Amino acid sequence: MDTKIRQNLISEAKKRIAADDPSHDFTHTQRVLENALNIAKKEGGDLEIIIPAALFHDLITYPKNDPREKISKVEQAILGTSPHGLKPTFLEAKIVQDADLLEATGAIAIMRTFASSGKMNRPFYSPEDPFAQKRELDDLAYAVDLFYTRLLNADERMDTLAAKKIAKRRIKFLQQFLAEFQEELQGK
């Protein structure tokens, strides 16, 4: 992709992405873009679809009937990143979806989880049963429950081998975090 076009897309994304949600701000978008580019290096794919889809995956900016080339594929790739989105059917959409899912793994996922939980006024954990051993998991009620419902299994929702490999390493870190958290709660 032409450097000037890429910079224009980045500039446009920066203007349009809201700054009031630290879990979905422009730095999230930049990390998704970098994840997508790293995956594409290993998996292939058309960067003219991947780059705009990664930049605008949380914000569709083009009308449905836009006459520009490749816009419908960009839109499909963006729609694949939605929690209830389309299952990606082509490589570029799989790459963008996996790049976004990588944000649900590792150290940044921990920060994003607690940032969005704070914004939603959701407690970090259930004081009576922090690890849902005697209750049903409820990721809408407790931040730590989200680890078990979405973060620790993010790799299972990925399509590319490159992303799965990165996710597995990051998931180990999430498991270490939870183990440390449990020890701290036990006063160790």
Notes on the structure:
This protein has 2 domains: 100 residues, Hypothetical protein af1432; 82 residues, Hypothetical protein af1432 (Orthogonal Bundle), CATH 1.10.3210.50. It contains 8 helices and no strands. It is 58% helix and 0% strand. It is elongated, with a radius of gyration of 18 Å. The chain is mainly α.
Topology:
Blueprint: H1 3-16, H2 26-43, H3 47-55, H4 71-79, H5 91-101, H6 106-119, H7 143-151, H8 161-185
Helix pairs in contact: 2-3, 2-5, 3-4, 3-5, 4-5, 6-7
User: Nearest-angstrom radius of gyration?
Assistant: 18 Å
**In the residues, how many domains can be counted?**
2
Helix content: 55-70%
Q: CATH architecture of the largest domain, please?
A: Orthogonal Bundle
Would you state the CATH class of the largest domain? Mainly Alpha
Tell me how many strands there are.
0
Give a short account of the largest sheet. Answer: none
- The chain-level structural class is mainly alpha
Strand content: under 5%
Q: Report the mean per-residue pLDDT as an integer.
A: 90
CATH fold name of the largest domain: Hypothetical protein af1432
Question: Please, what is the CATH homologous superfamily of the largest domain?
Answer: Hypothetical protein af1432
* Amino- and carboxy-terminal Cα gap: 53 Å
What are the segments in which pLDDT stays under 50 over at least 5 consecutive residues? none
Q: What's the tally of helices?
A: 8
The H/E string reads HHHHHHHH
From the spread of the alpha carbons, the general shape counts as elongated
